Please model this.
Amino acid sequence: MKYKYTDYHVHSKGWSEDVADDGPTFEDYILVAEEHQINVCFLNHYELYYIEINKNNPFHNGRVNDYLEEIDKLKETYDFILSGLEVDYYEDREILLMEFMDDYEKELDFIGGTIHEWIKGYPITSKERLSSLLDKVPMKKIIDDYFEVSRKMINSKIFKNICHIDTIFRYINNNEFKPEDDCDVSDNRVIDLGRLCIKNNIKIEVNISGLKFPIKRTFPSLNVVKKLKNEGASFFVGSDSHSLQYFENKIPKLLEMYSYLDSI
Ligand SMILES: [Zn+2]
Ligand SMILES: [Zn+2]
Model:
């Protein structure tokens, strides 16, 4: 790659459904990345479950090939971009996910495994959907299930990189949905997941998007990052951008994270 540092996690218009219609295209990111001299990895959502059932999903019907073609064409001009996907883990689709990885792992530069939901239609990364889930399921069970599914994802060894390993705390924290007394929200749980990543040779994301939420910290926290780094973990840094302004504004923070990782 041309530059020293990389933002491994940006979403682009037309390929991630949670990017606005006037959101950033590949080229929009490329121009800003070049100006600030960083590499950029497109990490759009690849949600197998929704790709199967929703004809309007950008990746429905093998359109991942169009995605790769578009990025490959841009690579002819720009040598600081990476093709990637943020692939959702579903416990009941492990075989399909493995087949997908067999077919595409070599085609893509970077694949990050991720968990947004395990009960279909209730992503814990949506405040509104999490709130509905909390009406039905005790908070303790939601948190425990998150860690259980995460453990399964890591142990499945499907992915070599894992995104935002403690994103369950995006909204469950003292500033939003306050953890109830019986909930274990300790760093140790996150560190245990990180240790599993170390054991399985999986890289962990320092996802800086948490800084924009009331929790105001990275996923995972810098304390956890430091502890895991000292135990041998490898990290990559992602802004999780869905807009161009956010992407550009976060570049100093991204670089700060890389120097933090170098310093510990
Ligand atoms: Zn995500
Ligand atoms: Zn993302």
In short: Residues 86, 114, 116, 163-164 surround zinc ion (ligand 1) (CB under 6 Å). Strands lie at 6-10, 39-46, 81-88, 110-114, 161-162, 203-207, 235-238.
